[in-house]
Automatic annotation (TrEMBL):
It comes from Reticulomyxa filosa. This is Uncharacterized protein.
Amino acid sequence: LRHVSLGEEGDEKNVPQSRDDTIGDLIKIIHFEMIKEKVLNDKKIYIYSLHIQNCISLRVHVKNDFIPKFDKCKKIAKKRLEYFSLGGRDDLKVDRTISFSKNASEFDMIDKQWDKRLTDWKTQIAELRNKFPMLSYYTVNDMLFLRDLLLSYNQRAEKAQFLGPLVSKISFIDPNVTTTEIETAIKSIKVAPFFSS
């Protein structure tokens, strides 16, 4: 993790922060809250200016920096999950981890990119379904499964183990289809990747 702390003259500087430093900073926040309660309860003023100033700075930073970034990460993760559930695979490698050292505008940019990826994916699938109406019988995940079965069938010597699942998926459209018909059809066409994996 990285966080921004205030320098001597109030200018911001990036400081690397380890897990232990983060835990230490959280302990400082808790300690500050305890001191604040003690001051409020005893109605006395204690002079902890340097210690309190550091804790206030950290507390404001955590609230103003980390929390919005976590919220944005949740939105991005939701879009990534929807993209995956709709069959998208290629772009899942992009922005798999997002460093908290990025600023808020970079998080917004990543969020907008995922909006675009998701919209583009939905558009691409809709266009393919319009172009090839038989695809409407299957989810994209079913299509990916069929593609993988067909590729495995063509690449492996032991083909019989792939015919059962193929017949099962294809018989959804035509329950009278036979294993022999599917095997003949597969041999007569060249199977190309439907989507890149």
